[in-house]
TrEMBL record:
Pfam families: Response_reg, Trans_reg_C. This is DNA-binding response OmpR family regulator. Residues 125-223 bind DNA. The keyword Transcription regulation applies.
Amino acid sequence: MTTVLVVDDDLTVRDVVRRYLELAGHQVALADNGEDALAWIAAHKPDLVVLDLMLPGISGLEVCQRLRATSTVPVVMLTALGEEENRIAGLQLGADDYVTKPFSPRELALRVSSVLRRAAPAPLAGTIADGDLELDVSARRATRGGTDLSLTTREFDLLAYFLTHPGEACTREHLLEKVWGWDFGDQSTVTVHVRRLREKIETTPAKPTRIATVWGVGYRYDRA
């Protein structure tokens, strides 16, 4: 059974989310502030964190930043309608997905299951390599020149897609569908993840040689 930590200072939200996640088969822990959430994560290592960005004390953004310094545990953000800047900031810090308040608890449960499914090791999968870049799909481990890249779930999936579709010009909409599994959504999510991925795999992120921008279309992966 997977363990999901729900971090939100609203008791009603925590209770509703807990009930829906438990119905989906997850074990659920709760926290109402960032300090307690970070302490619980360090002690128990959950499989996924549902994180509200508007928290008392340490903000959700700071929790995400601190978490990403030591862990690649998947994070699904809860953001209020109209908080686009915070949502993009959260994605830049390494969050894997987001749901906008007011939200459908059923949609959140589906998003959580989707992220967990993508984070699970793929059975009998092999290794994908391009020059000094290597992805062990079974272990969900990415290295460059033998050094671990510490990719988030979505970053790993995005890079795996690029590596298996070299030379293909992909629109953001296409990547949302193939990597995120969304039929619709905020395409800036793709832009943010491509930027983060470039920072980890490109020698000079401002002048990428692997993930090229195709103006008016989207992106193309060029093998080394």
